[in-house]
Amino acid sequence: xxxxxxxxxxxxxxxxxxxxxxxxxxxxxxxxxxxxxxxxxxxxxxxxxxxxxxxxxxxxxxxxxxxxxxxxxxxxxxxxxxxxxxxxxxxxxxxxxxxxxxxxxxxxxxxxxxxxxxxxxxxxxxxxxxxxxxxxxxxxxxxxxxxxxxxxxxxxxxxxxxxxxxxxxxxxxxxxxxxxxxxxxxxxxxxxxxxxxxxxxxxxxxxxxxxxxxxxxxxxxxxxxxxxxxxxxxxxxxxxxxxxxxxxxxxxxxxx
Length: 256
What we know:
about 260 residues, mainly beta, 2 domains, eleven-stranded mixed beta sheet, five-stranded antiparallel beta sheet, 1 helix, disordered N terminus
């Protein structure tokens, strides 16, 4: 005996169309901004100084975390850069204008400020720069690479300001004490000035000091930001630490 098939006939309705792929998130290139001006930027695989970052472009502005006790916090803010050549005496600076809201980000590391009178570091820094009674102006401990080992950032300077008629030794230094290759402690100099002042001009002395840390390329490794100046101008520099020493990232300055 043959039995009739009583199953339900297959549906002929078309399959639903696949959901469209989400639009890619477009991120602006990153730029380090200090006091509203771009001092360095990441453009593709290159890092550039502030005035080379160009006006009229959109950037994700990354802040400079100052040297103070507490967690390292870097805010990111979408901005547009603009150059005003009439803004004398520094018309080449790329000013920024916010185009969105700032995003606060903690990098999971902290800065510990150490006393400038720390005798251990006075001795180590003095040996590195060959000055017995070196005057430390900034000293702080922070893990730049995020590898669990702290580096110590320092600045030292012979004079506060720019003396008009001073004579004798003039010096300014910015550097890092770190554990180098083979686990040996070493000093990496980021900025060095050492000269004799003639007593004739405040230009005899060049100044430098720590500003903070940043992350220009977003890779999680922090760069050091410091200032260097003379009687009529100032620059802001961003420097990374490589295996063999300091690696300049970018910077900008203003003066006459």
